[in-house]
Amino acid sequence: MTNITNPYLSAKAVAKKKTDIPVVLVCAIFAAATVSATIKMFSQGKTLSGVMGIFLFAALITPVFRILRHAYRRACARRIADALLPLTEESLTFDQLGTVLSSSKALEQLRSLIGTGYLQNLQINAVTRTVALYTPDGTFVQWICPGCGAKNSGRRGSAPRCKYCGQPYAK
To answer: Domain residues of the chain, as ranges?
Structure first.
């Protein structure tokens, strides 16, 4: 399933659960209470209860970290997909990718997000050191500039500008 506005974002990167914020709040509140009780148990000499409190804290903080990690990956995937959307090239070299994304860790992050299912329609070729950008049919639109008459092409959904005179295209 492709996203209508951005073909590089997967459904996993677009979907946002409504229960994430309440789950984080409840788990964080109970984790804070568990830490307080665990410190109190250790200070009273109840070591076994303190160890159980540590395990309970680990169980309560795990969903918080998972939800925050998912939100971070979604934000990174959206940033990368938005940076790749206006490009008309079919492939980028690793150096061009680092320039477009303005990050030195762009390739590792891209591999991670493709592997975890947050990005789609991208293929990394380590032999030729390129990243292929695949787009579904009907993604590119061709238009003629009203200012200079040049033939241009651009992605559907982006703000098209003429490559030659820079004038924005208005329908």
So the answer is: 11-133, 137-171
Q: From residue 82, how far is each of 6, 18, 125 by CA, in Å?
A: 7, 24, 21
pTM for the model stands at 0.73
Beta bridge partners of 124: 131
Phi, psi of 2 (to 5 degrees): -105, 155
- Enumerate the β-bridge partners of residue 9: 119
DSSP string, 18-76: TTHHHHHHHHHHHHHHHHHHHHHHHHTT-HHHHHHHHHHHHHHHHHHHHHHHHHHHHHH
Lowest-confidence pick of 57-61, 66-70, 166-170 = 166-170
- CA 109-110-111 angle, 5° bins: 90
